[in-house]
Amino acid sequence: MAQGAPLEGTVAQRIRQVRGSLAPGELRVVAALTDGYPTAGLVPIAQLAAEAQVSAPTALRLVSKLGFPGYGAFQESLRAEVQTRLFSPVTVYPTDDPGVDRAGPADDADLADALALYTDGVRATINNLSRADLAGAVAALADTDRRVMLLGGRFTSVLAAELHQYLRMLRSGVVLVQPNSGDRMAAMTDVDDRTVAVLFDYRRYQQTTIEWGLRAAERGAELVLITDVYLSPLASQAASVLTTSHTGPGPFDSMAHGFVLAELLVSLVTKELGEPARNRLADFEEMQLAEERQRRLPRKG
């Protein structure tokens, strides 16, 4: 971020932009906020300061560094985030407008809108990534002495599955935890301080994913959280927090940007792993080609 550039985005995004320049007391306020984000900041300034064990002026200095003219504007931003977290696709479901002539199921205006939304979303996703958190996530995923477990929710399990499919071709010890009770419990028995747990959790945040992540952290796992800009409650427990945009044509939040991030992680992990990953991938492709040749052979008898 350029010196003096105005801060934008959610409170969480702003915190990540200035974290490296905060004083110890201000970092304690950040810790108090993230433990109960975003509602932790909706209390009076004296209460927030007391919870962080700092003075009220220290808490106000943090608010100023985040780019807000005062505590009221800071709280207004948090209240808007609370409302956004309650998003429902029903509220933005398109309605027929008899006064609008349409060229067909998807006209040029629809395609232009989609292009703009997806382009802006990808740009925001890349620009808002914490470089430190991204580097930490890549290092953890490339550490072949550690087991990697990936878990998503009802919808985000497809993101976990894609990242799993690629990572397992590059390195060993990669496990996809299926989003059901039995598989989650079985996987938890293997979690320890040599585990990297990658969790996908987007609004509306799934309680079973949150509980699994908290339990994994208690058992010593390093959490890599992939979430939206409003932050899963797991953010305060994660070693690395990677956020993506959710913008798309609607009515559902788009997961396209989650796929972009997953593929970026694969690319960076591949570079980190180097020649051993190339050799493993070559073995994989050789076995795949041999299987395809075997299938083409005529059956005897």
Automatic annotation (TrEMBL):
Keywords: DNA-binding, Transcription, Transcription regulation. One of its GO terms (biological process) is carbohydrate derivative metabolic process. One of its GO terms (molecular function) is DNA-binding transcription factor activity. Residues 9-85 form the HTH rpiR-type domain. InterPro entries: Homeodomain-like_sf, HTH_RpiR, RpiR-like, RpiR-like_SIS, SIS_dom, SIS_dom_sf, WH-like_DNA-bd_sf. The keyword Transcription applies. The keyword Transmembrane helix does not apply. This is RpiR family transcriptional regulator.
